Every structure is written in structure tokens, then in C-alpha cells.
Amino acid sequence: MPRISESLAGRVHIAELWPFSAGEADLLGPQADSLLPALLGEASIVPSFQGRTMPTRREYLDPSATSPRSAASNTWPELPRILRLLAASTAQEVNDVEMASRSSIDRRTLRANYLPLLHTVYLAHEVPASSRNLVSRVAKRPKAYLTDTGIAAI
Fold it and tell me: How far apart are CA 60 and CA 51, in angstroms?
């Protein structure tokens, strides 16, 4: 938070909350889409969406079911190739240069745009290198994982 004047040293803990898995969402049914309003309280979120219908989880994940194909979807044709490369290299060290050359994408573009997008939507995850030897831990690269096992198995 760049505008806070306090450092908050020792007072902040960031908890990363992963989205529901498909199984969890199925078990929760329609309640899977009601977590955020429940956490924030009806008064804080609902008035800002009055007159609009909120997409369900299924509509959000499959926008083609409710809307025609948009021109914006054509701007990311590299994503399927990147997902296939990540699936083929799951649990291996991240090698940006090799992945960029195999996908015909500039390494900087891959690292600055595509991989952060996949991390943001929780489709990809990097596990930091680990070793008992501190020098080896610094020298090694993180391992990449495609978190959706269904996509990874294709």
C-alpha cells in the first residue's frame, strides 16, 4: 500500500486465499458465489451492484455461454501454448529462456505479462527453491506448477 505513512512493521499478515476448487464449488452450490458479500456485509457491496446481475461462477469461467466471442479474446492466442508448456514442465525448474523460445514469445513479455496473469488467476504457481545448503538454495531456480490438474493432464 504505497500511500500509507506507517511502515506497519510486525503488524501486518497477508493471507493468500486461493479460490474454491471445482469440487468445493460443487459442494457449496449457489453459495459458492456468496462468500464476498457475506464477508463484507450486505450493506457494503450490494448497493453498488443494484440493477446489474452478477455472473455466476460458471458464467464467469465460461463467458462464451452468455456472450458472443469478443475481439479481446483474440489478443491472447499465446495462452494455450503457454499452458501446454507449463503442463509439460510441471514440477520442474522454471526456465524462462527455454519456455520463451518454445512458445515464440519474447522472454521479457512472458515474464512480465503472461506468467503473472496465470499466477493472478491461480492457474500457475511457483514454489521457491529449497535445499539444506543456503548457497544451493539461492543458486537454484523455483519450480513451476500448473495448479489445475485437469489442464495439466491434457
Answer: 18
Between CA 136 and CA 130 the distance in angstroms is 8
Q: What domains are there in the chain, each with its CATH number?
A: 20-68 (no CATH), 78-154 (1.10.10.10)
CA separation for the pair 79, 65 (Å, rounded): 20
- Residues, the chain, total? 154
Q: Are 144 and 90 in contact (CB under 8 A)?
A: yes
Beta bridge partners of 126: 144
Q: How far apart are CA 133 and CA 136, in angstroms?
A: 5
Q: Give the span between the Cα atoms of 52 and 30, in whole angstroms.
A: 18
Q: What is the pLDDT of residues 127-154, one digit of tens each?
A: 988 888 888 777 788 899 988 887 888 7
Are 86 and 117 a contacting pair, CB within 8 Å? no
pLDDT tens sequence across 55-104: 666 665 565 555 555 544 555 678 888 888 898 888 898 888 998 999 88
pLDDT confidence tier of residue 22, bands split at 50, 70 and 90: confident
Q: Identify the pLDDT of residue 107.
A: 92
